[in-house]
Amino acid sequence: MEGRLLFLQGTPPSPLKNKMISSTEDISEEISESPVQGISIPSDEQILWLPELSDLERLNVMNAPLEDKARILSSQTSSSVDETLSEISKKTNLAYLESFELPENPTKILPLRLIHSFCCLPLQKESEGKIHLITVWPPSERMSRWVYSVSGSKPIWSLGSPEKIVRAITENFGIGADSLDDSDMDFEDEEDGQDDLEDQNAAIIRFVNEVVQRAIVDRATNIHFEPHKDTLQIRYRIDGQLVPVRVPDNLRSFQDAIISRIKIMSGINISEKRRPQGGRITFSHGQSDLDIRVSTLPTLYGESISLRLLNEKSQPLSMKELGLLEKEEKNIVSILEKPHGIVLVTGPTGSGKSTSLTAFIRKIHKPERRIMTVEDPVEYEVAGINQTQVNSEIGFSFASALREILRQDPDVIMVGEIRDRETADIAIRASLTGHLVLSTLHTNDAPGAITRLIDMEIEPFLIASSVEMVIAQRLVRRLCMECNQPADLPEADLRASLSLLEVSSDEVANLDRVRKAVGCQNCQNLGYRGRVGIFELMKMTDSIHGLVIKSASAPDIREIALTEGMSTLQESGWAQIKRGLTTLDEVVRYADGMLED
Ligand SMILES: [Zn+2]
Fold first, then answer.
1. How far does the centroid of ligand 1 lie from the alpha carbon of residue 215, in Å?
2. Is 81 left (phi over 0), alpha (psi -120 to 50) or beta?
3. Which residues, chain by chain, have CB under 5 Å from ion ligand 1?
4. DSSP strands (E only) in 286-348
5. If you measure from the C-alpha of residue 524 to the centroid of ligand 1, how many angstroms do you get, rounded to a whole number?
């Protein structure tokens, strides 16, 4: 994939490709050997101002993209990026600015392409014949020469946080603004029509890569390209919420090229525009490969494209990280330690069911237990576990995979999802013949799982004697730990929310534990970072066993489960609020969703 190559280089696009600027550089070379004489700029070529580095460390830093250099260096010296940069600033006599302010129209002072290529921004400060700039790493001679050539002023450099600078560039100019800079593409001479086309292709490739790369950095799980009447909208889903991506104003004119590019990357037929299609991309990101599922759908103003990002190197979570309370964890583990039975996790798509199952498996993984999984797709790799992926194209379904797995002498089997009677049937029989089976079902609450299995024509007595526990769960957004603050809520508001959540009004006493989201650099100004689970645990007690055998309705089962101490999703949400992990807004929002279900 040609785009990959460009992307892997990690360095900003070479301005030399651009004829306009390369010609100005030629001019600058003619003007003087070094137009910025008198301003001594410590070069990063050899990082000589850091003599204590080993050759390998030096090489690692030198080969990294500009905006990553400080981070890589900081990881080698195990200090923070800020500390590293202020250390560098001392050694190089460049000021280190904690915060900075941009001038009204930064691109009037410095062309966008230089801002992007050098990862720098002009500052508001003014002085005669000089241009003040902030960048992420001590600038090279070359950078200074370019700035001088283009602006005619001597550059005065300062250093700043790479994260803040990169974010300021994206926020001010949108993702890919330099890739899709019209002026670049219009510049070519008539006879260079071919080059023009190639440049445009390269720009589109770069743009699509930038959108995906930014999504990965922002921890997005999905990217949506949505053609509308006047715009091509791009949105990320981060922690379950849609976040619009700021894109260049001229994006609409590149819509067809962008959509074609994604279709090419994902091996989809580009001439077919009337039917929905599916494909996949393996995207190289740093050391790892990212698997991306692509789906196209014809809409009124063009094909809508959705990308689902599956990070193969995702770190599976522990049970504690899921947000389980200690007593809940104990409760679940007591079931997981049994040699046989079924544990079901339920919830809608995206409620973190497979994350939970993976955490359970990691918890019970021991050398003397053979654990096998069948998943669609494998979302987390777990060392020491035998993971299989279904493949519907060749008829390798959950049911057929499960049947094969049973011939492989497993102790524990994890089935990604029970969707049909056949899978349910084999799973139940497997648990009755001495296997522990973990799986998920698409139901809203725990008791619903029982009636769903009955709907799949599974005999109630088989369900009653195999299912040990059903866990319903949802994910709510986790407060950013760096910026959350006390909510300072009026007591009456809390009282109203508690009654909405059907939580005891006595809990009003915990008013001062309620926190609110604020927003900072760490969380893309969302106030939240990551998610935390809320849970409803239903154990197969004797009384529930009796109800299941009688094919009782879900509400009846629920009523008994609650009298036996099952806590609701809303109560679990309130517990997470009290722990300072999420907000009342989040839980109330999800509770509203649950009522609609
Ligand atoms: Zn924050």
1. 18
2. alpha
3. 480, 482-483, 520, 522-523
4. 288-299, 302-311, 341-346
5. 7
- Please report the pLDDT score of residue 189 as a whole number: 39
Residue 517 Cα to ligand 1 midpoint, Å, equals 8
Q: How far is 529 from 46, CA to CA, in rounded Å?
A: 38
Enter the tokens of residue 460: 């109630």
Which helix (H) or strand (E) segment holds residue 159: the answer is strand 154-160
| C-alpha closest to that of 351 among 13, 70, 590, 66 | 590
- Residues in the chain predicted with pLDDT less than 50, given as ranges, are 1-44, 183-192, 595-597
Sheet holding 95-97, edge to edge: 95-97, 154-160, 130-135, 120-127
What the block records as the tokens of 577 is: 């609020």
- For residues 471 and 439, the answer to whether their CB atoms sit within 8 Å is no
Which residues, 6+ apart, have CB-to-CB distance to 552 below 8 Å? none
Per-residue confidence (pLDDT) for residue 39, from 0 to 100: 42
Rounded to whole angstroms, how far apart are CA atoms 336 and 8? 43
Cross-strand pairs, 289? 284
How far is C-alpha 305 from the chain's CA centre? 18
Q: Compute, in angstroms, the gap from residue 174 CA to the centroid of ligand 1.
A: 21
**What's the 473 CA to ligand 1 centre distance in angstroms?**
25
What is the residue type of 168?
A
Q: What is the pLDDT of residues 415-450, one digit of tens each?
A: 999 999 999 999 999 999 999 999 999 999 999 999
pLDDT for position 356: 94
224 within 8 A of 234, measured Cβ to Cβ: yes
Residue 234 pairs in a beta bridge with: 225
| Residue 525 Cα to ligand 1 middle (Å) | 6
Q: Give the number of residues written for the chain.
A: 597
Cis before 377? omega within 30: yes
Cβ distance 59 to 70 under 8 Å?
A: no
